[in-house]
């Protein structure tokens, strides 16, 4: 019983939790650095920032803090960049309308735009071209078959493809053969006694007409 009385006589002091405050460089108590931000660029070289944050929400409102942010360099994947355009290619046509192209290369991945550019040629000379055909000339024969001709000319040079002269048959119908008119009678010979005189006619076109060409 005496031991129990001694125990009752002992008074225990309650445990008290006390927060320790300290200074570390330019930090202030209860302030800590937050997470680094994302890099300021999607590619190439940029920066990240970090800010001081109150470790215990609401416990830092009466504290004056300087240098609340800091930054550091960050490096992302190299940016995609277009190389300069190449020289224009030769025109697709040596004359008249045509097109030319030029190319470029993307250093990296995902360049915006086209790798090829096309443009019309502006310094080509006009291509050689035929004029319209002339009217048909008169037929070389009135019957029995002949030829007629028409022509055209080449402009912008002499390299037009094709013929500059065209022939076609004409007047293929058969000729009507008839003698020409009789010529005058010849002088009667001899001067006395019985004698004869003659006259002739010709067949046009050099063909053979029926009958005789001479009459006595």
Would you give an account of this structure?
The chain is mainly beta and 216 residues long. It has one helix spanning 2-9, and strands spanning 31-33, 45-54, 69-75, 81-82, 99-103, 106-107, 116-120, 129-130, 146-151, 154-155, 165-170, 199-200, 214-215. Keywords: Disulfide bond, Repeat. Residues 195-216 are annotated as: Disordered. InterPro entries: Compl_asym_regulator, TSP1_rpt, TSP1_rpt_sf.
Short characterization:
With 216 residues, the protein is mainly β.
Share of helix among residues?
Answer: under 10%
Name the helix and strand elements from N-terminus to C-terminus, one letter apiece: HEEEEEEEEEEEEE
Order of neighbouring strands in the sheet with most strands: 1-2-3
Mean pLDDT: 78
Are there runs of 5+ residues with pLDDT below 50, and where? Answer: 5-28
Rg to the nearest angstrom? 59 Å
| CATH class category of one domain | Mainly Beta
Count of DSSP-assigned helices = 1
Give me the oligomer status: single chain
CATH topology of one domain: TSP-1 type 1 repeat
Shape: rod-shaped
Q: Give the CA-CA distance, first to last residue.
A: 199 Å
Q: Say how many strands there are.
A: 13
């Amino acid at each position: 019983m005496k031991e129990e009385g001694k125990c009752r006589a002992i008074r225990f002091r309650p445990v008290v939790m006390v927060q320790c405050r300290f200074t570390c460089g330019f930090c202030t108590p209860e302030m800590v650095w937050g997470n680094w931000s994302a890099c300021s660029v999607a590619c190439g070289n940029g920066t990240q920032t970090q800010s001081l944050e109150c470790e215990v929400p609401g416990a830092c409102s009466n504290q004056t803090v300087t240098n609340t942010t800091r930054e550091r360099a960050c490096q992302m994947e190299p940016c995609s960049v277009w190389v300069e355009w190449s020289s224009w290619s030769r025109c697709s046509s040596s004359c008249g309308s045509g097109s030319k192209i030029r190319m470029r290369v993307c250093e990296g991945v995902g360049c915006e735009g086209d790798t090829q550019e096309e443009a019309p040629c502006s310094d080509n000379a006009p291509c050689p071209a035929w004029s319209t055909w002339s009217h048909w000339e008169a037929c070389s024969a009135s019957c029995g078959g002949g030829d007629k001709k028409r022509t055209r000319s080449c402009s912008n040079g002499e390299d037009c493809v094709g013929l500059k002269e065209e022939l076609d048959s004409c007047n293929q119908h058969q000729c009507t053969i008839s003698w020409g008119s009789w010529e005058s009678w010849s002088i009667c010979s001899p001067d006395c006694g019985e004698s004869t005189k003659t006259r002739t006619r010709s067949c046009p076109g050099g063909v053979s007409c029926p009958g005789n060409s001479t009459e006595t």
